[in-house]
Amino acid sequence: MGGVGGGCLGRTMKEEKNFNNPLLRIEDLVVEFPASQGRTVHAVSGVSLDIRQNETLGLVGESGCGKSSLARAIMQIPPPTSGKVLIEGVDLTQLHGRKLKEVRGRFQMIFQDPASSLNPSRAVGESIAAPLLSLGGMNKAERRLRTREMMTAVGLNPELHYGRRAHQLSGGQCQRAGIARALITRPQLLVCDEPVSSLDVSVQAQILNLLRDIKESYGLAMLFIAHDLAVVKNICDRVAVMYLGRICEVAPCESLYATPAHPYTRALLDAVPRPDPGYPAPDSGMLPGERPSPLDPPRGCRFRTRCPRAADICSEIRAELRDIAPNHEVACHFPLDVRPENGGFDGR
Amino acid sequence: MTGPDQDLLVVGGLTVQLQTEQGPIRPVDSVSFTLEKGKTLAIVGESGSGKSMLCRAILGLVPARGNIRFDGRDTGKLTGREMNRIRGRDIGVVLQDPLSSLNPVMTISDQIIEPMRIHLGITRREGVERALYLLCSVGIPRPEERLGCYPHQLSGGMRQRVAIAIALACEPKLLIADEPTTALDVTVQAEILTLLARLQMERKMAIILVSHDLGVVAGCANNIAVMYAGRIVEQAPAAELFRRMRMPYTRALFDAIPRIEDPPQRRLPNIPDLPPNFAALPPGCRFAPRCPRAGERCRTEEPALVCDEDRNHRYACWFPV
Ligand SMILES: Nc1ncnc2c1ncn2[C@@H]1O[C@H](COP(=O)(O)OP(=O)(O)OP(=O)(O)O)[C@@H](O)[C@H]1O
Ligand SMILES: Nc1ncnc2c1ncn2[C@@H]1O[C@H](COP(=O)(O)OP(=O)(O)OP(=O)(O)O)[C@@H](O)[C@H]1O
Ligand code: SF4
Ligand code: SF4
Ligand SMILES: [Mg+2]
Ligand SMILES: [Mg+2]
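Structure tokens for the assembled complex are given below, as produced in the milestone run.
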């Protein structure tokens, strides 16, 4: 099964719409891990997404839904079980050795745990410069100059911070160093895996502003992963919502937040805490039941075991992503706020 | 309503001094507050402001100066044994990382039952029954299947629920929850906060809820204390605080939160730089180097925490908003 057959129709429609080719296109990406007793973890199950030049795409979903697996598959660490990762039309999964390394220099990743991308026993400046070294083609002086430039661009002081070790930096400074390291090869695409989830609100604001500035001045495309929809709205142009290895909804920021169509998106929106004591505490009643295990995802719609709108058809037939408004795609038999002219089932 | 018999915890002039390579530091510096029975006090501040150290001092886990009255008793006068009893039975603790508060090599059932056997003197059988009831009340489905599990076999949200169940086992009068949801995603966070609010209603238990995010505590705290560089710099009932934030730091913390109602791509007004190093505090107001309202006086004289009598609103600032 997978998502192989179902996606075809949607894709031709999308291709017509999208005359300027995306920078990154993921097609039917599947990531599976072997588990004990011959079972399989279905971490990512048939995901197709585009990221355009200069665009920031948000990817949100609960812990364990496969966000990091998807990000790592894009980076080929490890490569996906199946599916394509196309950078300007070149399929990375078909590249090897030198060629892969060359193309991979064009996209970089930053991680949730800011210290993890920095070598603890080396000077921070050297960690930042490391990708240049493995890319080759620059002498020591050039590398040092570029490193200093990058450190300044992310708000680190080269004089003060170049020689420090990771543990001598604060969480926010580590994340800045991680960003400098990721940007030093002048990539076209930056994959950010929960870059602010471990930071406090004031440092989070600093890093979000920094990423936004950098995206503009370097003309970057970004895949921005988070579980907090308020954070995503602050930095993204478009948002993809993921549940248990599948995409439920993709839309531009404005329409996703104004008219969420997937019941899961609605639940995520309701869970965002409001900084207002008059606002009722978030109601978890929306999502009854346990999270299903990726070892044994529900048949049909994967959200059906927790969905307040689920009906019989949901356990039999999986809803494919389809357009319900311009650029607004949803995978649900009974989306919220479907206007009649868009057709679809109107069960409730 | 308020009065000495309503007060569960009265903290006065609490100070923790540590020796470091850079000299002595005071991560908790003259902190005073009162927590009434059955109420929630939130403690909010940036990373490193001393929130966890304050919790540890209340629990008597670090040497501290000052007074702590818990449930009418001066904890400074208690023996180590008595203090252990308070910690194990009257005060429950939940930490940010449930893995660090759970024992990785003990089953869930043993971890819940053990403290009850020690402090409540119940039998193993009664313990199992109560454990099932507790797991149920923290929203763990099919608890009988979880009793034999080890912590690593549970998801993060489930682990935090178990940690809460353990903290509640001996029916504490006070629950100290130090960033109980920071490591969790938003849906689980919402579930845990709802759970805490419900348990508090049912059990008339007081809660100290620590967080770096004013948004997280807004919906569930009766009273909010904002901490900066080891001191409480503003404190008020939640509604009053959100109605009027007097101290520029509180305002800045609040403004830094991305809001779901805001238009996309809004630049966040962030606080520049980082909190000061405890070993080299600035003279005057500790927030002055980062404060947009700072004036001459702020750089020389430290403002005291003053009370706005009629409203119960305390703040430490020369030029309040
Ligand atoms: N190397 C691996 N081997 C086996 N299972 C894995 C591996 N990596 C991830 N998984 C499983 O795949 C699923 C998806 O994990 P992933 O880390 O991609 O989720 P995530 O959305 O990034 O979650 P989080 O928000 O917690 O980071 C999870 O059930 C996880 O346990
Ligand atoms: N054992 C120690 N020795 C020296 N300094 C310490 C020690 N433990 C904590 N500190 C310092 O005390 C200060 C307060 O730390 P604390 O952990 O209470 O902050 P916090 O407000 O809980 O921060 P976070 O939000 O990161 O948990 C920090 O500056 C920290 O570096
Ligand atoms: S397809 Fe059915 S179960 Fe799935 S989200 Fe839509 S209504 Fe809910
Ligand atoms: S006392 Fe001065 S520096 Fe301190 S918060 Fe008030 S205005 Fe700012
Ligand atoms: Mg992840
Ligand atoms: Mg802490």
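Residues 1-19, 339-348 of chain A have pLDDT under 50 and may be disordered. The first strand of chain A starts at residue 24 and ends at 34. Further analysis is deferred to the final report.
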